[in-house]
Amino acid sequence: SPTGDSWGIFTFLCAALCNLPALPALNCSEELGAGQSIQQTYDLTRYLEHQLRTLAGTYLNYLGPPFNEPDFNPPRLARAERVPSATVDLDLWRGLTDNARLAANYRAYSRLLCYLRVLDGQVGTAELRHRLAHFCASLQGLVLSIGGVMSSLGYPLPAGPAGPPTPPGAPAAPNDFLKKMDDFWLLKELQTWLWRSAKDFNRLKKKVPPAVVTLRLEARGF
Amino acid sequence: SPPLSVSPAADPAVISPQDPTLLIGSSLVATCTVSPDFPLKAEDLYWTLNGRRLPAASYAALGPSTLSVALARLNGSRQQSGDNLVCHSRDGGILAGSCLYVGLPPEKPVNITCWSKNMKDLTCKWAPGTEGETFLHTNYTLKYKRRWYGQDNTCQEYHTAGTYSCHIPKDLALFTPYEIWVEASNRLGVAVSDVVMLDILDVVTTDPPSDVHVSRVGDLEDQLSVRWSSPPALKDFLFQAKYQIQYRVEDSSEWKVGGHRRCRGTAWGGRGSRCSHLLPLQVVDDVGNQTSCRLAGLRPGTVYFVQVRCNPFSIYGSKKAGIWSDWSNPTAASTPRSERVAGGCDPKGGEQNTTLRRELKQFFGWVKKHAYGCSNLGIKLYDQWRVWLQKSHKTRNQVGKEP
Questions:
Q1: Shortest Cα distance from A170 to chain B (angstroms)?
Q2: pLDDT per residue over B223-257, tens digit each?
Q3: Which run of H or of E encompasses B184?
Q4: Which of A167, B27, B57, B101 is deepest in the core (most CB within 10 A)?
Q5: Which residues sit opposite B154 in a β-bridge?
Q6: What is the pLDDT of residues B81-92, one digit of tens each?
Q7: SS3 state of residue B208
Q8: Residue among B181, B180, B178 at smallest CA distance from B199
Q9: Is residue B395 within 8 angstroms of chain A, CB to CB?
């Protein structure tokens, strides 16, 4: 009978809970929080990477060939450098402090979010606008998540959100074709950043304070 | 091979015309002029359109570093963001590009229909004119104004009921005619629809009826009783309502609209039979705020899905028909199946059922002639008739064999 089943589940849960070791002392909760946040941020970058594949596919089809061709590789004009680049020297990347690593991610995504929002305002079809809006919301979530990790580790957030989408010295595209190229590179850079972030957060995960690792083992020993 | 490295100062080449707008079928001559900083000649260049290389036969060198291409009888743009006409260097690198917008000016939007939900707002939809495809991004703007007051208003909330729709949420006056029209514009021109004139009160619709209940009618195998409440949103306004019921069997996708009038041609147990008389139901038995009706001619022991919708057709005494609401969420109920008499003679049991059905057929034929519409009067009459039947042996012998 249904009631019999609920009682069964309830008693099982009680037994399980009663057998757990005492929860870790509160003074360790901050590091636990950071560990979980890093994991969540990592998961979010993987999710965004997946979402970006669909978004980019739709957007590049909207731009039309050759932009949606798999081997398309246009010149990277100076104007495109207003988008922060993910590619960095390997030794430099390895040597980044946790703070610098997180700050680079935070700054990059804040900037990228701004540019994407501008895109959202200009794009033609309703379907694209809808997808872009959804992606921007998720990306905003990522920025907040990174901010959360930084706060829980005691690092200050990088000064202010990104400046206006077109800072002085890098004017908006002078013609529609160049604008398409900018859009292409924006999506490419976004993709590269998400790949890089997965590695960044993987690295950060491994550097979680040892105290937390011990606690986890105790929990598992039950 | 890797693309050409680029000097940060200048664009490698310039295309003319840059991002032109053209009518379908027109021709175009475009030129690509390499910047003096670049060591390229006209013969080092080639063109592509949407990724496809254009034939060299259409090229012409207009100068040492200028190559032109002739495009004839252009088709509508492949994508609304513009066709990509690109000037390349020999190794495939991109030097410059131009977006071609080839299409048609918009046609007059047509078929503007509007409806107001409970007189609070107005939603309108339209169709984009006969051709539809302009190949260019076309913007639609819905405008409206009160007939004798000058100011034009623009609708802001688009796509609420499909692509070509707009929603006006507030500040609408009643008892006054509105002029409504749609403007379509794209890079090649503007088109304005005909003006539609309407009064909000003439296009009122409402929520579907709430609390739809479907229940059996005693033991009657072929009937179900449907009850619902009139939509509360319009209760303060003087209106009458028409209702329609539609119902179907659980495993069929075919809806039958109507009510107590049994559809001719529906055989017992017959499948796939079509209802030739689809009659809307008139309102009856408006008991307080409840309304009800009886479905008859149903199959015994069958699950039916029932939906009801409402038409507020006489708002403030307006003579015009309102607009039908959406159908209510389907409500399900099953007709009873008569039980065979224990230890009974099966063949006779079957005959008894046939007898019962035949009786009902005759009864409803009688009802049609003598009592209009769905009403509780029916069941009392039927019971009376049954009693009368049982009392009178003669009648029973005429109808069928004794059980």
A1: 12
A2: 888 888 878 777 777 677 778 888 887 766 666 66
A3: strand B177-186
A4: B101
A5: B143
A6: 999 999 999 999
A7: coil
A8: B178
A9: no
Q: Which residue has the tokens 């410059």?
A: B96
How far apart CA B177 and CA B186 sit, in angstroms, is 30
CB B191 within 8 A of CB B108: yes
Q: Return the H-helix or E-strand segment holding B110.
A: strand B110-117
Count of other CB atoms within 10 angstroms of residue B390: 10
Q: Evaluate the CA torsion angle A205, A206, A212, A214 in order and state its sign.
A: positive
Number of alpha carbons in the 13 Å side-chain half-sphere of residue B252: 18
- Enumerate the residues of chain A whose CB falls inside 8 A of the CB of residue B5: 75
Could you tell me how many residues make up chain B? 403
The total number of residues shown for chain A amounts to 222
**Nearest by CB: B8 against A61, A65, A78:** A78
Residue from the list A63, A75, A178 with its beta carbon closest to the beta carbon of B81: A63
Q: Same fold for the domain at B110-203 and the one at B206-259+282-335?
A: yes
Neighbouring CB atoms inside 10 A of B309's CB total: 21
Angle at A12 between CA A9 and CA A13, to 5 degrees: 85
Asked if B80 lies within 8 A of A62 by C-beta distance, the reply is: yes
**pLDDT per residue over B267-323, tens digit each?**
222 233 333 233 333 333 343 345 788 878 788 888 888 888 888 877 777 677 788
- Is the CATH number 1.20.1250.10 carried by domain A41-161+174-207? yes
Rounded distance, CA B185 to CA B106, Å?
6
Parse chain B into domains and list their residue ranges: 13-103, 110-203, 206-259+282-335
Burial degree of B213 (CB within 10 A; 0-12, 13-18, 19+): middle
End-to-end CA distance of chain A: 33
Contacts of A191 (CB under 8 A, 6+ apart): A49, A52, A56
CATH superfamily of B110-203: Immunoglobulins (2.60.40.10)
For tokens 């379907």, what's the residue? A127
Q: Do A181 and B51 touch (CB under 8 A)?
A: no
What is the pTM for the complete model shown? 0.69
Residue A66 preceded by cis peptide, ω within 30 = yes
Interface of A with B in 150-179 (CB under 8 A): 175-178
Size of interface A-B (CB pairs under 8 A): 74
Find the CB nearest B163 among A126, A175, A181: A126
Extract the tokens encoding B255: 């809806």
ipTM score of the complex? 0.74
What is the fold of B206-259+282-335? Immunoglobulin-like (2.60.40)
Q: Is the pLDDT of residue A169 over 50?
A: no
Q: What is the DSSP letter of B349?
A: H
Q: What is the pLDDT of residues A185-209, one digit of tens each?
A: 999 999 999 999 999 999 988 876 5
CB atoms within 10 A of CB B380: 10
Nearest to B81 among A62, A73, A74 (CB): A62
Across the range B343-358, mean pLDDT stands at 50
Strand partners of residue B123? B115, B167
Q: Which CATH class is domain B13-103?
A: mainly beta
| Phi, psi angle pair for B233, to nearest 5° | -60, -30
